[in-house]
Amino acid sequence: MRRKTSMVLVIAGVCFATGCVVAAAGGGALAGIHVTSQGAEADVESNIQGTHGRVRAAFPQMGIEMTGEASENSGSEREFKGSVDELEITMSLETRDHGRHIDASTRRSLASWDQEYAERLVARIVGGRQQSGPASPSS
Question: Please, what are the domains in the chain?
């Protein structure tokens, strides 16, 4: 038992050190949430309509004003745009073999992104959490 615990701690340490953030989400997450250079991403086991609904619910929950929505390839790829405070949000959904890929980009300026806010946004969508009040971007 001690060996298994040590292995879990080593894996968690490696993920933390490399910037890989894995969230224990109840929304059918396949591999967890990964922080990227411009935001965060995750793969989920959900149909496109279910994931679409979660994005549309998460935007107002987090205080994001939706400014645009587009669909391609018969709806298998969707993109949502919005803004909150000084952030420009782009959320992309793409159908993959085993579910949907979610990618959130949260741009603060020409060369600055808020990965923490993107991670919270993706966690809200993946987990389908219904929290009250907007989640403010990091300063």
Answer: 23-127 (3.30.310)
Q: Tell me how far apart the alpha carbons of residues 28 and 8 are, in angstroms, rounded to a whole number.
A: 21
Strand partners, 62: none
pTM summary value:
0.71
pLDDT digits (tens, 9 = 90+) for 108-118: 999 999 999 99
Phi and psi for 96 in degrees, rounded to 5? -125, 175
Cα–Cα distance measured from residue 84 to residue 6, given in angstroms and rounded to the nearest whole number: 41
Cα(111)–Cα(73) distance, rounded to whole angstroms?
30
Cα 126 from Cα 24, distance rounded (Å) = 10
Q: What's the average model confidence in pLDDT over 12-32?
A: 44
